[in-house]
Amino acid sequence: MSASVLIYNALRLPAADVEALIIGRLIVAVPRKFINPGQKFALYPANIWINLLPHEQHYSSSFLPVAQNANALAQLNSEKVLIKAWARCELCQMLNDPESLEALSRLTVWTTEALQQTLLEKPYIFVAYLRVYLLPQPLEMPVHPSGNFVPLPKSLNVTDSTPVLSESIFAKRRQKLEKLEPPEHPELEELQSALVYLSTTNPKAKQLDAEIKMFLGWSEKLPTTQPDPDLGWIKTIAQIGNSSDGNTFEKLVRKSFIKLGFANSNNKPEASLDPESTGGAGGLDFYCETPYQVVGECKATKSETVADGTPAQLIKLGHKHLQEQYDCCIKIIMAAGQLNRHAKQTAIGNRMNVIRPETLQKLVELKAKQPGSIDLLQLKPYLEQQPFGEEADAKVNRYIDEVQEKLKVRSHIVQLVKDFLERTKSTSVEFNQLHGAYAFSMSPQPLKYEEMHQILIELSSPLTGFLGRIKGEDLGRDRFYFLRDLPLDD
Fold it and tell me: By the 8 A CB rule, do 336 and 241 touch?
């Protein structure tokens, strides 16, 4: 249960620094005077400038857009100040040697030049470690033109129920700052810096920017993401496939293959994957070149059976438009209706996979909701091997089930790490401990020692960023910490 805290005053800091603390980009401030550990206060974003350097020289390039916006708002609100957060000082250090300032710059938003300029005015730089909490409602107060601490118009009764960063992430970052260790992922920080300007206009860049910041420990949660807009048409695949609208079904199938990651550079309309330029009479319904060749025929139908003409058409047009390439292709018939006896024989004899619209919809929905879940090269053997004909639909469903089971295991492991750290108040957990905890948890399936470690390496990759990893002396001594949840769609 969160304890109540009474706060009477606020620490005046540059508006950009306060914004950095509120969004989790900073966990330290550079106050004018020493702050006693345990001291609690609100954060007052002031239109003040610690030194005479311009913004471009004071803040790192990755933080500059945020700094400029925060200071512009502070200048506009010349009569009122909005207090959004309070903080508790955990530690206050004094630094004055050049090496320490350079190391501090690498771990914060300030340039080395800015820190050195501050040091010209006094013998030490005070570095206060602040655990920051958001207020339930912002407090508006009159501007105070001067003072290190300013009195609040009324005392605030606050709780620590809304920390900007979790205890484990704050502790990890504090440890790095205290030891002035170099950043773990400078290449990702450079990428995030490049994304800052793109993210204002490009939603995908914005999402990647948010994921990188969370992986780096600069923020705790991803912003609320909107569902993939393609889910609108994806959810109609089965319905259209079970109708008589063959033209729309063919377009949806092409869009589905593109969504799954297939591509085709072929501009010929007779052997294309372009949803806006379907094959028409005499052309193939869909053809993929990469990552491997797939050719297929679509048959939307309300209730009638699929005649032998459908697989026969695929053979005829495949040889006509692809010639010798046809034999190398994986062959698929997308059909809602049952195949008649002759169609079954032709499909099985010619190694054709007959897949229902419902199955295609499940596969593409999984891709839309869990973008990294579908590996087309892992799907390939399911399409190349027996059985063929209508029984092939079960192969694809088996692949979908296996992907979903893998996701459940990974989601369970991420939650296990999160729960362990919250329960033990630790910043990381050793693999040997985690393997033991997994064995006694309600896990989706048992895992071998090396198998579980491999999954943890995957989850802690910078490209996934669900967990972080601290490499140990051997496999069992590797340590892992929580970064973000892996939610599953029900």
Answer: yes
